[in-house]
Design brief:
- The complex is a heterodimer of chains A (117) and B (546).
- Chain A is built from 5 helices and 5 strands, in the order E-E-H-E-H-E-H-H-E-H.
- With 117 residues, chain A is of the alpha/beta class.
- Chain A has a 5-stranded mixed β-sheet with strand order 1-2-3-4-5, with helices on both faces.
- The longest helix of chain A is centred in the N-terminal third of the chain and has 17 residues.
- In chain B, helix 11 packs antiparallel against helix 15 and helix 23 runs antiparallel to helix 24.
- The N and C termini of chain B lie far apart (100 Å).
Chain lengths: 117, 546
């Protein structure tokens, strides 16, 4: 499982791109890195799921926990570009009701600017 | 003469055994009806539990029966270990009643009793659902004592026979033989009181000496313990501890009284004491039987803590039992329903934490569980559910204020939803397990299981630590999924590769159960007292992280 992160130019938004299977092993590999990006972020985080090929329960909980961390700091986490099968898991788990899940990067950037309720 | 004696003895024994079986069978039915309420009511303190033990021993006349009734209550979660042991220990004292009754001359009572039973049969009371067990138990008691009367009558002339006198002379000095005979008979009959009653009858007619009779009674006590040990061979953990407690109790009693027997035998004052009491021999034996049951029960009650520790070492509780036993709720907490309610809530948090385990084995990549492990959590969850049900009913009956009653009723409502959720998860894994790996709906079922596992894990974390939980996230996560499920069903119906009828049925079943599970989790979040307070405060805010 690969994780790359960078700040989007001229904004405080961090883009995290995930690549591979977000199963137990994959989640363990990126957990620390993901947590530190979310905790250290000074603005919203958008997560690119386009290259995620499998989403396990533990992976879903990683996303949710970091969304909560960001929310406490007053920032959004937005997920985008999930493949249909991954989107299905986001829906069945209810994560898509608790987090912002959109189709494109542009929509994600837009949604990340909405203030946290 | 010999033919008459043996006919009388065999006929008497036959009636006696029929009587024991009838009495025990019908009394168990009588006691079983309200046993659940009685156990809940009467085991609130150790003293009451001991009284219940004596009463159940009196009613069933079998400590084996009481031991295994207690084992079944313990395994179903209706009784805790601390409350179970006094019931088992003191049931032996209750079994003394039969031995004491056997010393009395009950011929007239038996005849009147038989008359009354005959009348009851004529009136068809033996067919009435309310009275038939009472009539049956009375018939058992009458036959039992009628059998003893026949044995007494048949055995009285035996002692005059030369052959019998020779045997008695030879064996009167062998106490070990008497002890072994008592143990063996009791092992076969599975009742020390039954053997002791026969021994009492024999000593009364002079067929046995007092010393022989006592050794038979002590041996019978040990034999009864051994028969329990044999019957408990397939039990494990705490359930085995209950059986072992009874075995230890009976063995310690037998050992102690054999020691006392030889101690007093060495004392010249024994005969003087016997003479001073002026009691007939059979009553003396019956009182020794009573003491044999009471003294160890007293010792074990006083040494409860170290004995529990020893039992824990000898038969460690299984993983299932560890999970199923309450970790927060303890017996004394029942004295304060408000405190007990808080502890029940914490136990319910544990119960919720079992829920993701139901699904783990069915995921594409299970974290740790096999199907056996999932079943273990299911069984433990069911047992803990019954324990909490029983505790809540008990607490509601004894709640000391309106607020506490309200809180307990909310917890009971929560408990009912948890049980429905357990049932629905069981149904879901049952249907999922039947979907072949080549089926078109297999990937969907796996995604559903994965999603639900995540939802239940988040719920479990919140239930274990409600103070740091964010229930509104759970409310968002459990929003209605019926549109999504409708779309999913339609997608399969409209696809070119048509589903077989069987697959369509499975698709409908798993998607419907899925919706029900999500709805139930939502209900649980809403009714959970800690969450509902938090949600009430946030009622005007949007329920989403987004």
């Amino acid at each position: 499982m690969q994780l790359t992160a960078h700040s989007i130019d001229s904004t405080s938004i961090t883009l995290i791109a995930l690549d591979g299977r977000l199963d137990i092993m994959g989640t363990n590999e990126i957990e620390l890195k993901f947590n530190s990006h979310a905790a250290g972020s000074t603005g919203p985080v958008i997560v690119d799921l386009s290259k995620v090929t499998f989403m396990s329960s533990i992976g879903l909980r990683l996303l949710l926990a970091n969304a909560q961390t960001l929310r406490r700091k007053g920032h959004q986490m937005v997920l985008f570009a999930a493949e249909p099968l991954i989107a299905d898991v986001l829906t069945t788990s209810g994560i898509s009701n608790a987090l912002q899940v959109v189709k494109t990067k542009e929509e994600a950037l837009q949604a990340s600017k909405i203030p946290v309720a | 003469m010999l033919t008459e004696i043996s006919a009388s003895l065999l006929g008497g024994l036959g009636l006696f055994f029929i009587g024991v079986k009838l009495l025990s069978g019908h009394m168990k039915q009588l006691a079983g009806r309200r046993f659940r309420e009685m156990v809940t009511l009467m085991t609130r303190s150790r003293l009451r539990a001991s009284a219940l033990g004596v009463l159940s021993g009196c009613l069933t006349q079998s400590s084996n029966a009481v031991t295994f009734i207690v084992v079944s209550l313990l395994s179903s979660g209706m009784l805790t270990m601390g409350r179970a042991l006094p019931v088992v220990g003191w049931s032996n004292v209750g079994t003394s009643l039969l031995v004491i009754l056997a010393t009395l001359d009950l011929r007239l009572v038996i005849l009147y009793l038989l008359g009354a039973i005959g009348l009851a049969h004529y009136m068809d009371w033996d067919k009435s659902s309310r009275l038939r067990h009472l009539v049956g138990a009375a018939l058992g008691l009458a036959l039992l004592f009628l059998g003893l009367v026949l044995i007494k009558a048949g055995a009285a002339p035996l002692k005059d026979l030369d052959a019998v006198q020779t045997v008695l002379r030879v064996t009167s000095s062998s106490m070990i033989l008497a002890f072994i005979a008592g143990a063996a008979l009791s092992f076969v009959a599975q009742s020390s009181s039954t053997v002791s009653v026969v021994a009492v009858t024999m000593v009364n007619v002079g067929l046995l000496t007092m010393d022989q009779t006592l050794m038979i009674v002590y041996g019978a006590n040990l034999g009864s313990g051994l028969s329990i040990w044999l019957l408990a061979a397939n039990l494990r953990g705490t359930l085995r501890q209950v059986a072992l407690y009874q075995v230890l109790l009976k063995s310690v009693g037998a050992f102690l009284f054999v020691c006392l027997f030889y101690f007093f035998k060495a004392m010249p004052s024994k005969q003087l004491l016997d003479a001073a009491t002026g009691m007939n021999l059979s009553l003396q034996v019956a009182l020794v039987f009573l003491a044999l049951q009471t003294v160890p029960a007293l010792i074990f009650t006083l040494l409860n803590a170290p004995i529990l520790k020893l039992l824990g070492k000898l038969c460690a509780p299984s993983r299932e039992e560890e999970l199923a036993s309450p970790h927060f709720l303890y017996d004394q907490a029942f004295e304060e329903p408000g405190l007990a309610a808080q502890l029940v809530a914490r136990e319910q948090g544990r119960l919720i934490s079992f829920l993701p385990e139901y699904l783990d084995a069915w995921r594409e990549e299970p974290e740790k569980n096999s199907i056996e492990q999932a079943n273990l959590y299911d069984r433990a969850g069911q047992t803990l559910s019954v324990t909490l049900d029983t505790a809540l009913s008990n607490l509601i009956d004894h709640a000391d204020s309106r607020d506490t009653t309200e809180e307990l009723i909310k917890l009971q409502m929560f408990q009912n939803h948890v049980k429905s959720l357990q049932e629905s998860l069981r149904e879901l894994v049952h249907h999922t397990g039947e979907i072949p790996s080549t089926s078109q709906i297999r990937p969907l079922s796996l995604r559903m299981i994965e999603g639900l596992h995540a939802l239940l894990s988040v719920f479990a974390d919140a239930a274990i630590d409600p103070e740091n939980a964010e229930p509104k996230i759970l409310v968002s996560m459990t929003a209605d999924r019926s549109d999504f499920m409708d779309r999913t069903r339609r997608k399969f119906q409209e696809s070119e590769a048509k589903l077989k009828v069987e697959e369509q049925q499975r698709l409908y079943a798993i998607t419907t159960i899925f919706e029900r599970i999500v709805w139930l989790v939502r209900r649980l979040v809403m009714v959970q007292p800690a969450f509902s307070q938090c949600l009430a405060l946030d009622a005007k805010r949007p329920v989403s992280l987004s």
